[in-house]
Amino acid sequence: MAFNPLKEKGIAFDKQMKTWYDIVKRPYKREEVDCYTRTRQILMNGIETEAWGFKRAFCRMFDCEETKNLVARIRRIEDQQQTTINWLAPANQSVLDTTLGYEQVAVDLTAWLAQNEPDEYVKETLDFGLLEDFDHLYRYAQYSYLTEGTNPNDIVHGMTDVVLGRPTQNHHNCNGMRIRNAYDKANASPQTKANILTIVSAEQQTHNYYAEHGFMYGNDDLRRTYAEICDVEEEHVTMYETLIDPSETWLEKWVTHEFTEVCNYYTCYKDEVDPKLKQIWEEFLMMEVEHLQLAAEILKKKENREAEEIIGTTVYETCHFESQKKYVKEILNSQIDKRLNESQGYAFIDELPDDWTGYAVQEAQNKLGAPSETAIRISMSTLGRDVVSADNKLIKSQPELLERGLEDFSQAPNTVSIEEYQEFTEVPIPDFLKNDNKKEE
Ligand SMILES: [Fe+2]
Ligand SMILES: [Fe+2]
Ligand SMILES: [Fe+2]
Ligand SMILES: [Fe+2]
């Protein structure tokens, strides 16, 4: 790849301030947008929110007036970029529509990163998170249909399957147990650094979106489901952010942040099918090239280090979106019964001790029932089955998957049983749930 972000000519910093008319653009159309244009828009909003939040912390912690001055000025540009991107979503895209988009980001991005991650432990962590977000998509799809009459394929366009994953009620662990081993900054590939910051930004944005929007529905079961899944996203941020070497200096982290922005805009620009968004990705890419080079200059001045030592001389495609059904199925079949162990690694359910730390948390949180199970019960009472979208074989394997993936200990009292899933397989899938989107593989 010939794009070296430390050598390209970006947009001069004094040309980056925009008018209100440039910041706020016309949104895409809910009915017409490509599902992966929407996932790019959702992800890049999260990337900019992280760029902004990191620079807030930076100025509170970094004791140098000159550097703080520059970082504060760049931060305002990050904030303007965030507004532009987030507000590309149209006013008639509901909170649940957007939520399905968020979980589609989580599934298809995580699967992509796992297959493009050089560090085995980081890859294993991505595969672990993948099956949890995959289950979230399924739980939210119930409410999306029952509350708003939306077929999940109106949003995910048949590119991402909707069936159960590792059951959400089993995602609740001691947050201390979610802490992972950090990479070693001296040996980690720049690709690993950018991959992790990308997934951290996506998960943090998802957490924040649920925390800020779950209250916008009147249905208490749905509100509780948002609370439950929001709490899992908090665990996901913990899991991914602790992969980052905490001994990186503030300036090193700044360089890595700008580099991650460059990599993601580069990928968005390369992949985008909507000409209006493609233009935005291109412009923002060249703004980020300038941010990166400004950060690299400060690194040189303050620490006498070259940015190249930290990020190398090329970009990585950190957010390529395409259908990942095959990969997700593989991981689902081989790892649905995987859990965290007590020593920052992984174990299968059979290997967990009876006093495993996660059980106490699950008992405390689920003792009155898991809202993510109520989601399926509500579908059962209306449709006689759950809302799903996948090939028949995968749909029919749900009872078997549940049997392997659900823990016997500390089950929520309202858990939908394997027998009940077995009964679903007898109930035909209603026509309106069939995927009539032409984009299906
Ligand atoms: Fe930015
Ligand atoms: Fe999720
Ligand atoms: Fe997540
Ligand atoms: Fe930036």
Question: How would you characterize this protein structure?
Answer:
The protein is an all-alpha fold. The chain has one domain. Helices cover 61% and strands 1% of the residues. It contains 18 helices and two strands. The protein has a two-stranded antiparallel sheet with strand order 1-2. A hairpin with a 5-residue loop joins β1 and β2. α8 crosses α10. The structure holds fe (ii) ion (4 copies). One fe (ii) ion binds next to α5, α8 and α9.
In short:
The chain has 441 residues and is mainly alpha-helical. It has one domain. The protein contains 18 helices and two strands.
Arithmetic mean of pLDDT: 96
Task: Tally the beta strands.
Answer: 2
Tally of helical segments:
18
Helix content: 55-70%
**Could you tell me which ligands this complex binds, including any ions or cofactors?**
fe (ii) ion
Give, in spatial order, the strands making up the sheet with the most strands.
Answer: 1-2
Distance between the termini: 29 Å
Biggest β-sheet description: 2 strands, antiparallel
Radius of gyration: 22 Å
